[in-house]
Amino acid sequence: MGDEDWEAEIIKPHVSSYVPVFEKDKYSSGANGDTFNRTSVSSPEMDNGSSRKDPFLRTGFGSGRSLGNRDVGEFSKRETIPTMGSFGSGKGFGNRGFPNNKFEEGDSSGFWKESNNDCEDNQTWNRGFSKRGGFQDGNESEASGPPRRGGRGSFRGCRGGFGGSENNDQDEGTQRASGLFGSRRPALSGAGNGDTFQSRSGSGSGRGGYKGLNEEVITGTGKNSWKSEAEGGESGDVQGPKVTYIPPPPPEDEDSIFAHYQTGINFDKYDTILVEVSGHEAPQAILTFEEANLCQTLSNNIAKAGYTKLTPVQKYSIPIILAGRDLMACAQTGSGKTAAFLLPILAHLMRDGITASRFKELQEPECIIVAPTRELINQIYLEARKFSFGTCIRAVVIYGGTQLGHSIRQIVQGCNILCATPGRLMDIIGKEKIGLKQVKYLVLDEADRMLDMGFGPEMKKLISCPGMPSKEQRQTLLFSATFPEEIQRLAGEFLKSNYLFVAVGQVGGACRDVQQSILQVGQYSKREKLVEILRNIGDERTMVFVETKKKADFIATFLCQEKISTTSIHGDREQREREQALGDFRYGKCPVLVATSVAARGLDIENVQHVINFDLPSTIDEYVHRIGRTGRCGNTGRAISFFDPESDNHLAQPLVKVLSDAQQDVPAWLEEIAFSTYVPGFSGSTRGNVFASVDTRKGKSTLNTAGFSSLQAANPVDNDSWD
Ligand SMILES: Nc1ncnc2c1ncn2[C@@H]1O[C@H](COP(=O)(O)OP(=O)(O)OP(=O)(O)O)[C@@H](O)[C@H]1O
């Protein structure tokens, strides 16, 4: 993917005539115009002979004046403003595109490295410098990025940092680190939001710095520098400015805390889903919240959250966790896994009492929850805060892309449940800001992702950190909608040998409330098809998944050009922008969110009615997670996927399987491709290595509908092979 030759289609006269509304307002005079010379951009030295691929170069998207990293959704649907250049043509100004010309973080080098793997904190270890600082990744062969909308924008005019080697990256980084923010941006001030940056030349280690109202200079050198990313620090090595973003605190009022959306018409149908529990002596499932015997405050909070009935994964997982057992639970997307682990943990904490308090010097959380993306961990935190409302239990969230000092300050105020992304967690542990001795619960949400090659090593480090109780001493809970066999095997290292495995429906299966359609669409027709679909959809909330960060920017910009209010989220956007984008989507300002896989898992956004896979992901599991952003909690949704026979044939067989398991129509052409395509290890009936259909330990104990309690294991499990 990503090789689409956009150039042929993108050069259209109307492109340069569309100017986003805020551009008109702020820069309508020609004075701010094209200070960046477009021809220089496409010089061979810079584009490495590959500018053919970069539509932005030819159309002026992102050339020169950054639109800032404003969400493209702010390119209003309704505005068409007479020509004044193209997107972002002109100055390297308004770094992030904030209306008040606020500056931040300053990732403004001219080149950036694209990666298909748009994930979180393990990737963020690369972020501070190498990804952003002026170099170009050979594979991507882009002379510059897409419309970076400022920030790390390609064509920043004044300091683009072009170059073709990693050395240039170093140079750019050094340049940035040596006072770029301090000395080159004296006393910048903008209004509001604490985003104002102030010059701090000479502060800290004397390398310059920048500061906002809520921000402090964190320099990269000297005794006080944070740990390098390679060591697990997320804020970067010696070069480059540190992340200073402090997320706004979530609303404190009860209505906001307990705001929720309605369960859908199919919520009751959850009861008919088959549930398997494997392992020894599984406790009986419960049928009602009352049976869980939770304390009054918790019960009140559950009621205030609008939960009246347990979902299947909750019926089985809650008693298992209450019984102190380790658990691997697999249930379809949007079926309430978060509450399935939070409620029993909170119940235990309430029963046993907590030790951490704001008066303790070293915070020692009783529970650590990790998840692969920042937005997801924040969502889990909000759920934890909701269910612990009115109790003395304090949940804290820490994640990358935010100021480390802020994370530390949150923790020292008291921390019983620590919700964290892996990079930030390891950073905090490395700095000895928390003690692990009290950890009784370790939860890996999206556990298959947390244990795969990306995060697995970090998770292994986590469980072998000094002080971390051994698996015999803690309770470990793994949750996901997908659990490939090989990951299940790896999980044995984390779990006690007698763990229980709960499978609600088919492991790795898609949610049946999502109506799936697969359309055969070639690369060159995708955009046209997308626009056609979105026009038909109207204002209904839609997530569009693409394979690369660069393409996410491109498609979002393209849609804005087509007057479709769109924003985007991906791993190269600053955290502030990501949160803004998600907010704009969540609250309806932009009904279309273009995303990479960073938004594929876990995100629970009300009323997402459509998911469009503009590009199919590389794995079927990812497909299942992506389409699971719609059709949640008994609501219905639609997923449309563009299948390009040039690149997606390997997915034909697993797609046919997922579609038929979910009782969806399977197009004849897809079956034909599936039939004629050899996929090593795949077999339609067992799914081979593609994903597991059962607990890989083989011992199945029950096969029940969710409304009935489980039976004892029919086949004792060979636990020995799991240590
Ligand atoms: N028993 C319940 N009654 C009503 N709503 C519920 C119940 N359990 C969960 N929900 C709601 O259902 C939605 C989906 O829950 P959640 O995000 O935990 O799903 P999930 O299984 O973790 O999904 P994913 O696999 O995508 O991460 C949330 O809005 C949650 O508040």
TrEMBL record:
Domain Helicase C-terminal: 529-674
Presence of the UniProt keyword ATP-binding in the record: yes
Composition bias type Basic and acidic residues, residue spans: 71-80
Top-level taxon in the UniProt lineage: Eukaryota
Catalytic activities: ATP + H2O = ADP + phosphate + H(+)
GO terms (BP aspect): meiotic cell cycle; regulatory ncRNA-mediated gene silencing
Region (Disordered): 26-242
Annotated Gene3D superfamilies: P-loop containing nucleotide triphosphate hydrolases (3.40.50.300)
Keyword annotations: ATP-binding, Helicase, Hydrolase, Meiosis, Nucleotide-binding, RNA-mediated gene silencing
Motif Q motif: positions: 287-315
Biased composition (Polar residues): 29-49
Span of the signal peptide: none
Subunit description: Found in a mRNP complex, at least composed of TDRD1, TDRD6, TDRD7 and DDX4. Interacts with RANBP9. Interacts with RANBP10. Interacts with PIWIL2 and MAEL. Interacts with BMAL1 and CLOCK. Interacts with Tex19.1 and, probably, Tex19.2. Interacts with RBM46.
Function according to Swiss-Prot or TrEMBL: ATP-dependent RNA helicase required during spermatogenesis to repress transposable elements and preventing their mobilization, which is essential for the germline integrity. Acts via the piRNA metabolic process, which mediates the repression of transposable elements during meiosis by forming complexes composed of piRNAs and Piwi proteins and governs the methylation and subsequent repression of transposons. Involved in the secondary piRNAs metabolic process, the production of piRNAs in fetal male germ cells through a ping-pong amplification cycle.
Name this polypeptide is given: RNA helicase
Organism in which the protein naturally occurs: Dipodomys ordii (Ord's kangaroo rat)
Record gene name: Ddx4
